Amino acid sequence: xxxxxxxxxxxxxxxxxxxxxxxxxxxxxxxxxxxxxxxxxxxxxxxxxxxxxxxxxxxxxxxxxxxxxxxxxxxxxxxxxxxxxxxxxxxxxxxxxxxxxxxxxxxxxxxxxxxxxxxxxxxxxxxxxxxxxxxxxxxxxxxxxxxxxxxxxxxxxxxxxxxxxxxxxxxxxxxxxxxxxxxxxxxxxxxxxxxxxxxxxxxxxxxxxxxxxxxxxxxxxxxxxxxxxxxxxxxxxxxxxxxxxxxxxxxxxxxxxxxxxxxxxxxxxxxxxxxxxxxxxxxxxxxxxxxxxxxxxxxxxxxxxxxxxxxxxxxxxxxxxxxxxxxxxxxxxxxxxxxxxxxxxxxxxxxxxxxxxxxxxxxxxxxxxxxxxxxxxxxxxxxxxxxxxxxxxxxxxxxxxxxxxxxxxxxxxxxxxxxxxxxxxxxxxxxxxxxxxxxxxxxxxxxxxxxxxxxxxxxxxxxxxxxxxxxxxxxxxxxxxxxxxxxxxxxxxxxxxxxxxxxxxxxxxxxxxxxxxxxxxxxxxxxxxxxxxxxxxxxxxxxxxxxxxxxxxxxxxx
Length: 558
Ligand code: NOJ
Fold this sequence. Notes:
The protein is α/β, with parallel strands linked by helices. Helix content is about 25%, strand content about 15%. Bound molecules: 1-deoxynojirimycin.
């Protein structure tokens, strides 16, 4: 059923439903294949709804399932109101919304409106001639004085962000691949068409959106447009577009909106999110991109320290104490698996997976779990460049070769960061193809599926069980209020190996403390412990050290 306008739904409280929610991200292509063609699908998601309910999540974020030529696995949309054949039909989508609703779960969709596919009818019209009324729905520019592209901007996926079209002798702009032409948000008819499409989906009964790459919608072609470098996000003036988008399409409804919003500064953060912001919350990048080299090159990783991670987390948490709301995450379909990123290779396992979960899950904000994270899934091994599917990985690999890397070194360096790490099929059990499909999957299953899979979930020691406990703590325990609304306070700030924080309200103080390193670590507690609420190993009230990757949630003496 359609969402209620907010005025009717909520008049008495400022608290929003999404503050108490746990979100689970599904990458449909890799979740579950119901029709045995090697590709996950909507019926596959429907068949696994009981599994999602078992975890205890409230909201499903579905990565794009719209009609698409799949150049970027669905982030290149050719019909916003259609479903990609490989995923199913609109009836399947309606059934999924209804079945999720029946189990008390809401669904949010990916909203990809910085660009469309080059196969979208809007673009097909736009590219025909310069006088077409839809010409201006995309960004077309003349050649520069030397006959080359209008400026030196690079696309996020590598190479120029301009593609030449001989038919009209102009270039079009694409922040991502050349099959993803950018929409021109300066055009009011285009903006209205986007809002109409959003309303259509809200009427279908979805509860909100994950808003893709949204801070790229403003382009500033002034003198700075002659700089060399990747297209910049969050340019001056984007706020005008975001205000209108929010007022037209989000605010009148009681939605969860979470923005992928690169470029937003810490100073801007609280004005972009929360009750008075453009979005309910936004994904920050500092804590997941601390290993990224200059210009986003994966093969030139930056060395990072735990202190960088701690700072990235606490910077925004301190802001959310005053205003705004966090989107808490360690993984998504664009990131390597968190275990492989943050944990030393010989420390990877259930204990470290639970430690990572504890560290981010009890911060102030809404926790997001990416499919398979609840099982402790890890990065995979790539045998050759042919084992990559992701266009960004292939581009980075070739850039590494151009910079003098050997094939083997390029493969390792890019492999560590590849988005395909997160996209390997979900590991349901230890049968062929990890129980994802009876057919050869579109992307190879991770070799560790016989050990890491969902069949072990009922083991009380499993990572899955631990996530259930964290969810219980946040939602149904005596600590739910303080863990949702309590103030955040950083502790052990200068400890080189441990990360710790307190959540506090008038009645309770809860500490989260974790050893982030693969060695025993001494801890001088700056507080008294009343009781241990949860530990991934064997922390007791009187501990003064933590074993490798050990962590605990503690109730403190007030
Ligand atoms: C961000 C999405 O998360 C990513 O997967 C995609 O490639 C780009 N935006 C382009 O839509």
